Structures are given as C-alpha cells and as structure tokens.
Amino acid sequence: MQSYRKLRGLSQRELAARSGVALSLIRKVEQGERKSVRIETVRAWATALDVTTTALLGPVPETEQQSGNGDRLAPLRQALQGLPADVEDVPTADGLRSAIASAVRLYHDDEYAELTTILPVLVKEAQTPVEHGGPEALAVRARVLQLVGSLATQTRAFDVAEIALEGAVTDAIETGDRVEAASAVITSCWLLLRRRRLDEARSRAVDWADEIEPRMSRATSTELSAWGWLLLRGSAAAIRDNRPDEADEMMRLALSGAVRMGREHGSYHEYFTTFGPATVQMKRVENAVIEHHPERALRLAREVPPGSRPTSDNRNRHLLDVANAHVMLREYDKALDILSQLACEAPAWLPNQRYAKDMLQTIVGRRRTLTPEMRKLANAVGLEP
C-alpha cells in the first residue's frame, strides 16, 4: 500500500482522510505491525488510491485460515487423498443420493460436528462406483466433494476445501452436465472470495456465466438459478475489488433472472442452495454494506420479499450485513440484538464468521464496561480478549 500511496503523492494522514480509516491503522500496516486487515478496509484504501483491491491484497494469513478445524478435519483430508476404502458392500447410486440429501440437510442445519463424522465415509463410498465408470457415478461423487468443499470453506479449512472443490469441478465437467459443473464452480468461487483471490473469483464466475447463459424465454428454474448464482459470485468479487460498475451490471443481470423465476427456487437437496428475488435482494444489501452505504443497505433490507425461504446460511449472512449497517450508523444496540439472535439460532455457524467477530470487536471497543449479555455473546463468537 505504501508504494501506491507515495505514487499518488499522499501522506498517511491524507490517505486516512480520504479513506475514512484511522491513521493509526495505516501506520501499523505500513510498518508491518498489523498483518490482518478486513477486506472492507482494504477496499476503502483502494477507492482512495484509485486502484483495485486486488492490487493491495496479500494472501490470507495462516491464522485466519484454519480456526482450529485442521485436526478435526484430518479424517476428511485423508479420505480425499484416496486412502483405501473399507466398504464391504458396494453402495448403490440411489443409496448414495439419499445419503447426500441427508448430509446436505445437516449442512444447512449447521450440524457441522455430525457432518464431519459422516463425510469421510461418504467420500470413500462415492469413490467405489466411480471405479466402475459412468457419468452418473461421477455426478454423485461431484456432489459429495462439493459438500465437503462447502463445509471446509464455511469452517475456514481452506486446504481441504481446495482439494475437494478441484475434484468436484473436474468430476462435474466430465459428466457433460453444464448445470452440474456450474454448481461446483459456484462453490469454488465462494472459496476464492474467502481466500481474497478476488480477480480469480470474478473471472471464473464471469466465464462460466457466459458459458451457460440461458435463453430467458425457455430456461428452466435450475438453469436460471445456476446462471444467477454465478453472477452473484462475480458481483461479490467485483464490488470487493473496487469495480462497482461491473458489480452493478452483474447484479442487474442476476435480478433479471430472479424476476423471470418470480419466487425462490430450489431446496436443501438440489445444488445446495436457493435462488430467486429474495436472494438477489439480500445480495444487494451485502454490496451496499461493502460500499459503505448503510442507509441504503437498511432500505434494501426492508424490501426483501416477505415470506421468502432462502437457505439458512444465506439468511444468516444477510442478517450479519444488516447488523453491520447498524454498526456503521453507531446503532450498536440494534446490531447486538441481531448478533444475539444469531447466537441462539445458529450457534455452530456463528463462531466460524470472522465478520461477526470483527463487528463485536468494534462494539466492545466503544464500551467502557460489558454487560453480561455482551460477555456471553463474545464467548459465543469466539472473541478473544
């Protein structure tokens, strides 16, 4: 960052004024005293310096990647490495599909501990039919690997996620089913976003959206969902990479697909997520928060279609965005109410969200003393002193 700042002829104080980021943080980053900075902060600097966020980003620090999940996922890592399976009976395709549906339900119910136990067995069982060939067996294994990648990305075990999702994309492409392949790519783009590989996430999402773009007049809901989610991933990468025009265009296209559908489509058993007007509206809220427009974010949040049924993880992420908009407006009590709600409703999901920890850290920093409820919440999100 220092080199870009000097090229622009800005002092640290002037960059602080332009970006709205504390001068003390800029000094710590440039002096190497602070290694980890939120991507929203980096984006503020990128906007002030008129560069992409990617130009300022480094790799995700190791301390942010594992969050204590490495050892817990060791059996899953071993299963992905293709260790010999101990399967007495060759599983049937129908049996595997049923097992996958149950596992996906566990994922969306935030039952991560149980899922971590089940998935190594499921990975090995999915390998057995593939040895006998056939696109159907590859599609089943792709679904299993995509679920592994989703769990590992959610719990920040990025090395496991990368292995699983590379396999999922490869298997899905070999099936010849473009929507199946796009589904795996959508999850891989989420991993790239979490790893701050913004340009790669944007490029992959855009390329695949172009590849599978449907004809609106006769596209199925599944085709529209896959295309729409690729656009949402691309928009998320573009807005974080300080490319607002690209982000808006992709969001506009995604909205056109959602409007064509008319309602949320999908279930916990198909492509791991839902898509429709509510999902797109929630992602519009997310983009507004990234752009640091809290009033617009809250207005957009009030326009989320009532009675919609997005998957729990998308809905939970949306609530974090709403909470952050309140933090930006210094409406800390409203933000705390939302975080407390999530601590009760998603106790396994919330501790894996660095976003929630950063918000609570901001709130705690503004208070001289903490209430018992705030201390309880700090423990729930894993906020360290």
From TrEMBL:
<protein>
    <submittedName>
        <fullName>Helix-turn-helix</fullName>
    </submittedName>
</protein>
<dbReference type="Pfam" id="PF01381">
    <property type="entry name" value="HTH_3"/>
</dbReference>
<dbReference type="InterPro" id="IPR001387">
    <property type="entry name" value="Cro/C1-type_HTH"/>
</dbReference>
<dbReference type="InterPro" id="IPR010982">
    <property type="entry name" value="Lambda_DNA-bd_dom_sf"/>
</dbReference>
<feature type="domain" description="HTH cro/C1-type">
    <location>
        <begin position="1"/>
        <end position="56"/>
    </location>
</feature>
<dbReference type="GO" id="GO:0003677">
    <property type="term" value="F:DNA binding"/>
</dbReference>
